[in-house]
Design a protein that fits this description.
single chain, two-stranded parallel ribbon, extended, two-stranded antiparallel ribbon, mainly alpha
Length: 377
């Protein structure tokens, strides 16, 4: 068998293989194409739209180069004037730029909630700010104070610049009425109300929003004496606030759900409906109307505080703490019974004891449904 031809070049021949010899082995046509290629340096043509853009920036658009403190710097200000201060897009007049809380109003929210110990609901009604936003403001101000104590730097120049360029809601002066920052009684659409139901009702039977909610929930109608006690849905709201357990349930097991309540009960501030009814019924008794509203808020806050205290007492009663000597850990021991109600049908209920320890998650198991199948509203 003939020996194989070795195509490998030994290291001893490398000094004799110069660059000229390697280039000369290439075809002349390919070498000329490689060395003749150059990058293009031709300037881009100045289009008509590009010229118009620079002309506008040097004439009318020059006003937008530096913003006026306290005013928005939108393009629509040049075309439509101050009336379009909250509409940044000329071709979309339906979009409105929402205002943000001013620094003074933000500090006032924190002082009323933390320093004066007022309820979030009362502060929301007085200042016209949503309760979720009030809770977020309190958390952010607490975080800011903690960072100041730790000596961390805050982006205060950036915050001041943003407050100068976007609309803000200022804090009213003493004796003036506070401008509402946003709607505080918005109600999201409940999924049960999406169905169209034809429900015949006799003319002699009263049918209001309370009955409509029971129809949407497929719940039986109220008894005659129960329906007679509710002259207006806002009357039911006060009962639910004082005792939420009076809300009935329909269905069994995982399909169980609360009976749909009227909008007067589900809105964030149900007591405002009763306040407006009092104003319409007694237009000349402002002081008496304000006193009744204060009493409603006090009863509501007291009922909520009692529920929190009872829940805390139940948790402490079931919980035992044990701290070993010379240890910085505290062990919380709670007695539990492993039944279907306490651990679920599969033993993996979120409220079961030991949920976080020793139970592998099933998100990687084949065949498991990983998308939400139910939305609570």
């Amino acid at each position: 068998m003939a020996p194989r031809v070795q195509t490998r070049v030994s290291n001893s021949l490398l000094p004799y293989l110069t660059s000229t010899s390697s280039i000369s082995s290439l075809p002349s046509s390919s070498s000329s194409q490689c060395f003749s290629r150059q990058f293009s340096v031709t300037a881009a043509p100045q289009t008509k739209l590009r010229r118009q853009m620079f002309e506008w920036l040097s004439t009318e658009g020059a006003e937008l180069k530096h913003h006026i403190p306290g005013e928005t710097n939108y393009v629509t200000r040049i075309k439509d004037g101050p009336m379009s201060a909250t509409r940044p897009f000329p071709n979309n007049p339906n979009f409105v730029s929402e205002s943000i809380l001013s620094e003074e109003l933000r500090n006032e929210v924190y002082n009323r909630v933390v320093e004066e110990k007022k309820s979030v609901r009362a502060v929301s009604m007085d200042l016209g700010i949503d309760m979720k936003r009030i809770a977020a403001v309190v958390r952010l101000v607490e975080l800011e104070k903690r960072q100041r104590e730790q000596g961390k730097h805050l982006a205060l120049p950036y915050a001041r610049a943003i407050h100068e360029m976007v609309p803000t809601t200022p804090l009213a002066e003493a004796g003036e009425r506070q401008t509402y920052h946003e709607p505080i009684n918005d109600l999201p659409a409940h999924p049960l109300t999406g169905a169209q139901i034809f429900y015949p009702v006799s003319e002699s039977r009263p049918f209001n929003r309370v009955e409509a909610g029971r129809v949407f929930s497929s719940a039986p109608a109220l008894e005659q004496h129960e329906a007679a006690e509710i002259s207006h849905p806002s009357d039911l709201a006060e009962k639910v606030i004082e005792n939420p357990k009076i809300i009935g349930w329909v269905g069994k097991g995982k399909n169980a759900r609360e009976i749909l309540q009227p909008a007067d009960v589900r809105i964030p501030h149900p007591h405002m409906v009763a306040l407006e009814r009092d104003r319409m019924a007694h237009p000349n008794e402002r002081r008496a109307v304000a006193e009744r509203q204060t009493q409603r808020l006090e009863r509501q806050d007291a009922a909520e505080q009692q529920r929190r205290d009872r829940a805390q007492a139940r948790r402490e009663k079931k919980l035992q703490t044990f701290t070993p000597e010379k240890s910085r850990f505290e062990y919380r021991i709670r007695e539990t019974t492993y039944t279907e109600q306490t651990t679920g049908s599969d033993g993996r209920a979120p409220w079961a004891a030991g949920r976080r320890y020793g139970v592998p998650h099933r998100d990687r198991t084949r065949g498991e449904v990983k998308i939400p199948t139910r939305v609570e509203a």
